[in-house]
What does this fold into?
Amino acid sequence: MLLYNNSGYDLMMKYQGLMASLLLLASVGAVAHPHSFIDMNTTFVAKDRQLIGLKMVWVMDEITSADLLYDAENAKSDSEIWKKLAAQVMANVLGQHYFTDIYRDGKPVKYLNLPSEYHLSRQGHKAVLEFVLPLAEPQPLAGKPFEISTYDPTYFVDMTYPDPKALHLPPEMAEQCKFDLVTPKPNASLQAYALSLDKNDSPGEDLALGQQFAQRVTLTCQ
It folds into this structure.
């Protein structure tokens, strides 16, 4: 699950980036999944009629952001403090494979283990993580659709595109590509189960709770 560890909850140090922020959120009385919220914004990255990556922007809610922003204080955006925090947060994200699944024709599309760039910044009272998820091999745009989902498997964190405007096709893709954003509608019993989970509870692995709440982006190009 996103930057969270049941057994080590009370022992985590605050300088573990986003993990610490989410643990801080959990400690103030959240009683149902999800406990934290991230608004996502993604731009497809293409070159020579091939998809080469995804540029992602994650805006964390104010409570989740509080610890990160407190640690940064009034430091300049290019200071070592911000660089250290960015590296810590990014390391946690990489530990969960960017929280992103990419499939094409039923097969997973592989990506590199390290982002080609990343950056952590402040947007008012919210922390913003930006990074580029690079594909391991460029993928021809034309052909079978890409199926993309970004989610926390345990649904501890809700990771959501507010609306289709949060997804962007660059000019080199706009004429030949289109995308659809589908937001699932889990049944009432599944929603009730998620609401029943305490902050220290983990849903059963076979349930794939986060995946059942995950939005799906379908990218189709001619």
Q: What stands out?
A: Helices lie at 18-27, 62-72, 80-94, 171-174, 188-196, 209-213. The chain has a mean pLDDT of 82.
